[in-house]
Amino acid sequence: MTIKGFGMGRKIVVATICSLFVVFALIVIQFYYFKYLLRRHRAMLYGLRTQVAPNVVNSTEPPKLGLDPLVIASLPKFAFKLSTQLDHLGEPVECSVCLTTIVEDAVVRLLPDCNHMFHVECIDMWLWSHTTCPICRTVPEPTGLA
């Protein structure tokens, strides 16, 4: 003999188990989809999916990321004079690459397009791997190259 309503309880248990299985499967699918998107985003971010010409594929030379050394060398550099070169608020100028104050007679480089000033060593290292000013992202134009 069966108890009245016991068949209905069995159906609810089976429906609950099936629903949990479907939810679990959806979570697993969503996890792998987000993992795929993250991997794709990283590949695009680091240029791994860029199309290159067939003759460049076998090149052993890594791609150049920063500015040309001649452009970097053409940017003006000079000894910093504290008395004449305070920023617009009257406070000492800070190198935004190393985050230290630029001291008297330190050799600095001035980016001509945006007039931002940095220690020569700091900005040269930055421009070896980047093509823009670290503050405003302006691309420094070469000066004195012809």
From TrEMBL:
Substrates-to-products reaction catalysed: S-ubiquitinyl-[E2 ubiquitin-conjugating enzyme]-L-cysteine + [acceptor protein]-L-lysine = [E2 ubiquitin-conjugating enzyme]-L-cysteine + N(6)-ubiquitinyl-[acceptor protein]-L-lysine
Q: Which residues form the RING-type domain?
A: 95-137
Which UniProt keyword terms apply here?
Answer: Membrane, Metal-binding, Transmembrane, Transmembrane helix, Ubl conjugation pathway, Zinc, Zinc-finger
SUPFAM superfamilies documented for this protein: RING/U-box
SMART domains the UniProt entry points to: RING (SM00184)
* Listed EC numbers: 2.3.2.27
Q: Which GO terms describe its molecular function?
A: ubiquitin protein ligase activity; zinc ion binding
**TM helices/strands, residue ranges:** 12-34
EC primary class = transferase
Note the Pfam families from the entry: zf-RING_2 (PF13639)
What protein family is recorded? Belongs to the RING-type zinc finger family. ATL subfamily.
The record ties this protein, via PANTHER family, to:
RING FINGER DOMAIN-CONTAINING (PTHR14155), RING-TYPE DOMAIN-CONTAINING PROTEIN (PTHR14155:SF558)
Spell out the protein name for this chain.
RING-type E3 ubiquitin transferase
Q: Which organism is it from?
A: Cephalotus follicularis
Lineage of source species: Eukaryota, Viridiplantae, Streptophyta, Embryophyta, Tracheophyta
